[in-house]
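Supplementary material to the annual report.
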Amino acid sequence: MESESLWTIFINASLVNNFVLAYFLGICPFLGVSSKIETASRMGAAVTFVMLVSSVCAFGIQALLVAIDAPYLKLISFIAVIASTVQLVEMFIKKVSPALFRSLGIFLPLITTNCAILGLALFQTNKGYSFVQCIVYALGAGVGFTLALVLMAGLREKLELAEVPDVTKGTAMALMIAGLLSVTFMGFGGLGG
Amino acid sequence: MAASTKSSTDEFIKGLWKENPVFVQVLGMCPVLAVSNTAMNALAMGLATAFVLIMSNVVVSSLRSFIPKQVRIATYILIIATFVTVVDYLIQAVSLDLYKALGAFISLIVVNCLILGRAEAFASKNTVARSMMDGLGMGIGFAFALFCLGAVREILGSGSLFGAQLFHDSFQNWVVMILPSGGFFTLAAWLLLFNWLEQRKAKKNKKEKTDALSLTKETA
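Predicted assembly:
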């Protein structure tokens, strides 16, 4: 896997195999916090940060687990690390920006159960990335997640003003937009090479 | 509270339809969309999730008086992760093909909001028996919803069900259904159906109410 250039990894993680639109990871916050562009971009930033930190931690843990020959502990230790990272970020945001803390609300602790982050940790170990590759992969995934979230928020802000039939309001509409976005992102296929 | 008087059968039934985790509560979307490209994958994923849900509900419920409130979420996640590891190795042992098809999504059951949600909202407050019924109902409801999605996607996308060819050769497969976007579209369609049914029911109820009201007014 050493042959994969960093740029390829980044483009693949952010556009071609976008975590939200191609792998369906992190759908809950994607549908939940995507009603305003501002909240969406902040959520994206928080997720990207947690991704970076947990990716580094996951790399270390994987090395440790291989060393002590206990692969069955992988899942449990990954999730424990992610949960504590999220706790850290939560305390940090609460201290630095209480307003942001309130606007993110329940979704901040829910980053713990954001599959995108655990998924990232699992994928990078499956792919056997080196340390630098892991960081670039995490960054790409985070950027891709933010991009999808912000695009979605922009579309939904416009939709607020549109007249749609009652039945389609809410999640059903959001899913249809997500489907269209997903088709659009398929256009990036082959870009990463 | 009305909930405490409910029998355990009600706890079971509610997960199947009225509070169906996928169609009504819209929880645990990630695996729903990701592995529902064939009916078989969807069903396997649904059953695996149901198993984890039932087991974690039982354990969380039986330990509910020992778990300190501050660390409860972390404890729940550890309990869930344990059972997911069991399922992960189990599927690997039973069917390697299935394991490859589901891939990382088995491990990702850990972060299924549905399971943590039920542990927090139900199992931590109710008896073991009722938590088990709740897990059973929600689990089967989840598996059912996944199967609905998977079946539609497989029939339209590959023209087959459980791998058996359904249509004549001239059938053009709707390739988009197998692709990620198909998952979004199919789920949206199911949600539309559910919303429509709910709305029709609400309208009917409202009409009956106004009818009854005007009737009482007339008699008065």
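The interface with chain A takes residues 26-27, 29-31, 33-34, 73-74, 77-78, 81-82, 84-85, 88-89, 104, 107-108, 110-113, 116, 176, 179-185, 187-188, 191-192, 195-196, 199 of chain B (CB under 8 Å).
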